[in-house]
Amino acid sequence: MREIQSRCLAAISASGVELEGWLLSEDLPDRSLSLTELVELAQLSTTSPEAKAAIWAEAVRLAQADPQLWLTVIVALMAPELSFTVRQFVDESGAESEDVVGDLFLGVLEALRGVDPGMNRLLGHLKRVARARVANPLAGRPSGYGAVPAVRAVPLAPPTGHVDLVLADAVAHHFLTRAEAELIARTYIEGLALSVVARELGFPPGQGESARSHAARKLIEYVQRTGDWSARRCRH
User: Fold this and answer.
1) Within 13 A of 197's CA, how many CA atoms are on the CB side?
2) Predicted TM-score of the model (pTM)
3) pLDDT digits (tens, 9 = 90+) for 211-224
4) Measuring CA to CA, which of 28, 36, 98, 189 is 20 to 30 A from 92?
């Protein structure tokens, strides 16, 4: 997770995007803050809860409006928050850490579709939905993988559809094939049966789960590596 965060921080640092701290919270410095500074402030124990909540709310709001750069910010913010969860599920289930990480961040993407950025305990909600995505019993997972009851995200605002945009962008930039994007969207997002979707998309029998895990890892890599592609559209 440290490597993931480091790559995301490098991408958002290169974007040159800044936000005015005082516009987010009176507890933040009264100056322009780089995105890396905002991520660091959100994770410092000395930052007030109100300021942390303001950073998270703004990051989620912007991620819903403009996925490429701001989803990279969300991943940078979430990575240390989910490190323990990755270790826990790997230890309990024997699953590959890359698969757990992919499922976690796809859970975050799912949560971002409809969450209200102004809701109380926003970070806790995102973490619960991410954990629920990993905990869902999935075909081909070890028996211990899925022992925690699933929780579904409660849409508190109209869905923005931004997950579909991210998948479309990943296809356009040749990170995913169209079949891989469909496999993720129709099973993770729409909740259709993996075996049925994999067969319809032409994946070999019994390889739907491994194909989806591979596609999820590629999608996370895309989010890490492309944070600065849309920077000019996000400048304030």
Assistant:
1) 21
2) 0.66
3) 888 888 888 888 77
4) 189
What is the mean pLDDT of each successive set of 10 residues along the chain, which is 236 residues long? 82 89 94 95 94 94 82 88 85 81 81 86 88 62 35 34 70 88 81 84 88 85 63 40
| 195, two tokens | 């075996």
Assigned token pair, 158: 């109209």
Residue range 163-226, CATH number: 1.10.10.10
- For 44-55, b where at least 16 C-beta lie within 10 A, e where not — what string? eeebeeebbbbb
> For residues 90 and 99, what is the distance between their CA atoms, to the nearest angstrom?
9
Tokens 């944070």 belong to 227
* Torsion angle, alpha carbons of 24, 29, 30, 36, to 10: -70
pLDDT digits (tens, 9 = 90+) for 90-108: 888 887 888 788 888 888 8
**Residues 6 or more apart in contact with residue 112 via CB below 8 angstroms:** 60, 63, 64, 71, 74, 126, 162, 163
Q: Tokens in use for 91?
A: 């230890």
